[in-house]
Amino acid sequence: MSRRGEFEIIARYFAPLAKSPGAFGLTDDAAVIAPPRGHELVVTTDALVAGVHFLPDDPPDTVGRKALRVNLSDLAAKGAVPMGYLLALSLPRNVRDGWLKAFARGLGRDQKTFGVSLLGGDTTATPGPLTIAITAIGSAPKGSLIRRRGARPGDLVFVSGTIGDAGIGLAMAMRKRTAPRTLIARYRLPRPRLALGLALRGIATSALDVSDGLVADLGHIADVSRVRIAIDAARIPTAHEPVFAATAGDDYEIAFTARDRDAVHRAARGARTRVTEIGRVARGDGVALLDTAGRPIRLGRKGYTHF
């Protein structure tokens, strides 16, 4: 990177993204936001590290868009409406102006798509890998937040979209193998299911987005809800081997539980989002992936783990 100062980088690439009046054009130390009357703020954060969450040679515009989208996916699973986001960048010395320009262009494109604006953040140098941390802020009517805790025995288990495409896309990209463009796109550009999240308010008893793997993430719902979740492997919406699909991660679909099957399908139609029933909640603990005979499938791993 050429020896630009921190404030020159902010002024050139990121101040144009700060459209909200409360961001003050990124000229102050903080931003001001207020949720609509009768709503509360919903806050989430995710960090993306080069070589861990994206490949060093991924196009910079898609890196920026993915960093924003994975945070919006968390808001979607909560049934929240995005309002804005904070961005913290730790940049190695070898990052060039062209990379920053494309990165900011990608963010600007998705700001228009999802109706959000940059509110502030921080920019630092690092001797380590490129790191992007985004904190997304949304709002939801008081008491409407869809939490992980809330699944009950007798609930049905659903997931949006398809599972496993991003995992296949990433595996092929890491091996430098030619892959269908749609699979690479699923890895680089997840689809935050914001419309579905809103439609599931008052219907879903628990929800989260699938980032580390379907089995692993449903395990979080099972743990905090103190229930057992059984998934029928054959019902997972995937074009790939079900065990791989259920443990690969990077899907950023919404997995959720609900009582009323008809209400779920009405919500899915209204949101124009595919939803598939894949299992059931019962008494007990943990998550089981079942074969066609109803027997638990032994898993080498349940999903991605950092540690």
Descriptive terms for the model:
Phosphoribosyl-aminoimidazole Synthetase, Chain A, domain 2; 4-stranded mixed sheet; 6-stranded mixed sheet; 33% helix; 307 residues; single chain; alpha+beta; 60s Ribosomal Protein L30, Chain: A
Written overview of the protein:
By secondary structure, the chain is α+β, with helices and mostly antiparallel strands. The chain folds into two domains: 6-141, 60s Ribosomal Protein L30, Chain: A, CATH 3.30.1330; 156-290, Alpha-Beta Complex (Phosphoribosyl-aminoimidazole Synthetase, Chain A, domain 2). Helix content is 33%, strand content 24%. Strands 6-8-5-9-7-10 form a six-stranded mixed β-sheet. The chain is globular, with a radius of gyration of 20 Å.
Short description:
The protein has 307 residues and is an alpha+beta fold.
Order the strands across the largest sheet as they lie in space.
6-8-5-9-7-10
Structural class: alpha+beta
Q: Identify the quaternary structure here.
A: single chain
Q: What would the CATH topology of the largest domain be?
A: 60s Ribosomal Protein L30, Chain: A
Instruction: Give helix and strand order, one letter per element, not per position.
Output: HEHEHEEEHHHEHEHEHEE
Radius of gyration: 20 Å
> What proportion strand?
15-25%
Largest sheet composition: 6 strands, mixed
Q: What is the class of the largest domain in the CATH system?
A: Alpha Beta
**What's the shape?**
globular
Number of strands: 10
Q: Topology of this structure?
A:
Elements: H1 6-14, E1 39-49, H2 60-78, E2 81-91, H3 97-114, E3 118-125, E4 131-141, E5 156-160, H4 165-174, H5 181-188, H6 194-199, E6 204-209, H7 214-225, E7 228-232, H8 242-248, E8 254-258, H9 261-271, E9 275-282, E10 286-290
Parallel strand pairs: 2-3, 7-10
Antiparallel strand pairs: 1-4, 2-4, 5-8, 5-9, 6-8, 7-9
Helix pairs in contact: 2-3, 4-5
